[in-house]
Each structure stands twice: as structure tokens, then as C-alpha cells.
Input
Amino acid sequence: MYCVNATMMEEIVSCYKLTEPVYIARPRMPSLGDYEGYLEQIWATRWLTNDGQFHIQFEKRLKEYLGVEHLNLFVNGTVALLVALHALRINSGEVITTPFTFPATAHVLYWNRIQPVFCDIDEKTFNIDPSKIERLIRPDTKAILGVHVYGTPCDVEAIETIAQKHGLHVIYDAAHAFGVRIADKSILEYGDICALSFHATKLFTTIEGGALVTRSEVERKRIQFLRNFGIADEETVIGPGINGKMNEFQACFGLLQLDMVDQEIEERRQLVGLYRQRLSKIPGIFFLADIPKVRHNYAYFPILVDEKIYGFSRDELCEVLRGCNVFPRKYFYPLCSDYSCYSALPSARPANLPVAQRVASQVLCLPLYGNLDSAVVETICDIIAKIHAATS
Ligand code: T4K
Output
């Protein structure tokens, strides 16, 4: 249990408490009138789901926006990931992955009867560390499942080299990586399959939603069947599929979001610039830098709090911010490897994951979304600076 000095807490809260709660994420809402326009058409046609006209339109426009050829929409990112493994026929053995991620990444392995093998992360990107992957490869290893955490690309070239050398599949959980590019190439062009999430908390949202991006039309078609119970036609089921379909309401929301997403990313970029400018002056607060040639999407703004230098722990800082009506999140603490369902695995031992353990104990994702007022960002930075000043 952590406990903030009560007088300091009172002083900071009385000075900085915001009148309205500020959350880590907020969806950018399209105009209600525009959405109603779509709803009227849905009402008129009574076509609600199963490859309706808006689903078709959205899939087409999304492919163009992302610069990819083979894409299937999904009801959410988790089902998309489940189907990705099934599509690659990975349903036993081991898959090497990162512990520093949302539970969905590890859980989809479990649901496909695959044992996750946790690999430590790189302290410069917080993504799976390619230099530590090879020692984890065993005869039963089927694939590497990387996550582009916070939208920062994994070292895709190094992972590709390892995968080719050992004959492994590469799957990317690109839940955070909407619109990210390396030079002129979409991040979704790397690996055998990439899964996106369009959840309400993401910078691009279809309420719930997701997609799989594959390398060929044959794979895309196979995934289309898997997404729809394996149904080929009214009298033919060609395999054990699942229901992963996106509905028309989600697709319409997505069509409207596509018109706004560039503005969303640009506004986030500016807010991240402000955070960085203000926080770089505070000892013990660290953040990730942009990577040259990468078009970042600024999906999240994680900071690391080094208690020894800053004077306060991450948990204490989080408590003060909450007291001020600011609700950051400790994404991703605890590590997946520390969940009771995985902690007994040999690869889950904390000693094997020193970087991930440290990052998870220090990380705090600060509020970031396009219509976040820059004055609120200033206040959050003021609070962080004030705490350090009070402790030093
Ligand atoms: N892989 C990775 C790496 C992921 O991060 C995720 C999901 C997935 C896979 C799975 O994709 P999906 O199956 O979800 O498509 C949220 C999201 O639910 C989850 O999608 C996301 N990652 C994760 C990082 O964040 P929670 O449980 O932290 O969300 P919640 O409900 O606490 O919301 C956070 C804040 O967002 C709230 O305090 C307020 C704001 N919010 C939330 C919702 C739902 C809104 O303003 N409006 C809303 O509608 O998981």
C-alpha cells in the first residue's frame, strides 16, 4: 500500500483539481446528424449485419487509407487475433510473445491451446526484444507474436530474419498501430498477419471493432469464411469457423471516423509535443522518442517514473493525479506473465524479464486524445512538476 503525504496531497489537490474528470482516452465523436443519416438508410433497408453495403464501403475505404490490399473487418480485435492463429493453423505448441501487453494477446494463445513463451522487451521501444528471442526457440515453437505497443513499431526486420531462419510464422498484434508507417510502407505489411483493434478507446474507433491484414487474396478469402462460421454457401460449411462479423452500425461509425482520423493524429502529435517539452525538464520522468522514418500515430503517451530520481513512485504520482480528477492508466501493469493463469510458466519468471518488470513498475499512460485541451495537459505537467519540487 502506498500513501501520499496528506498535507502535500491536500495542497496539490486544492491548487490543481480539475472540475471535470479527465480520462486516459476519449473517442472522437462524429457529428450526430451524419450518423443519423446512415441510421436512416439502415432503417430503410433493414440490413443490419452480414456484409451489408456499409461494411463493403468501409472495408474498401479502410484498405485505401491504410495502404493494404488484403483486409477483413472483425467485430473486435480479440476475435481477429483468435482467427489469425486459426488461419495459420497454429493450434498447439508454443508461441513467443511479449508480457508487456493487454491481456488479449496472451489469452488468444491460451484459447487456441498454445503455450505463451514470454520474452523480455527492449527498453528503447517497450516491444519484444529480438536479441532475446532465439534462446527461447524450441522444436515446438510455432510463431512469434509481436505487439507494436503504443503504436511504436517492433524491430520488424530483425524479427523477420529470426523467423525465416527458424521457419516460424510472424503475427503482429497491431491493436495500437492504426496508420503507422515505416518510411512509405504500412506497418501492417510486415509479418504473416496483423490484427487491428478499433475499440472505443483507440484513436480510430468503430465502437468495438477490428481487422486482419493478410498477405494474399487466398488467405483473405479463407479468413472471410472463418469469420462467418465457415459458411461457403447456404448448403456448404467448409470448416469450423466462428462469428467474428462487424455489423452495419460499426461500419458506418468507421466510415465517419475515416474522415477525422488524420486530424485526430495531428492533434495528438501536438499534445505529445507539449507533454515532451514540459516533462523533459522534470528529473526522473522519461518518455519514448519518435523513431526516424516512422510515421507515428501517438496512440498513447506513456511515461516512466524513476522513483529514485523523481522522489515519488509511479503509484504515488497516479494517486495524486486521481485526486486531481485526472485518470491515467498503468498500461501494462501487471505484466501478462504475472497473471495467476500464466505465472507458473518457466518463461514467466520475473528474473527472465528484467526490462519488462522495470518498465511495468514505472509506466504511467497520461491522458491523450485529439480534443484534449492543451490547458489540461499543462495542468497535468504542473502537477507532475510540483510533486517533484515538493520532494526535492
Ligand atoms: N491487443 C492489445 C495490445 C490491446 O491493447 C487490445 C485492447 C487488444 C489486443 C484487444 O482489442 P479489442 O478486442 O478490445 O478490440 C481498454 C480497451 O477496452 C481495450 O480495447 C484496449 N486494448 C485497452 C488498452 O484499453 P480498459 O479495460 O482499460 O478500458 P476502460 O473501459 O477502462 O476505458 C479506459 C478509459 O477510456 C475510461 O476510463 C474512459 C475512456 N472511455 C472508455 C470507453 C469504453 C471512453 O471515454 N469511452 C468509452 O466508450 O481496456
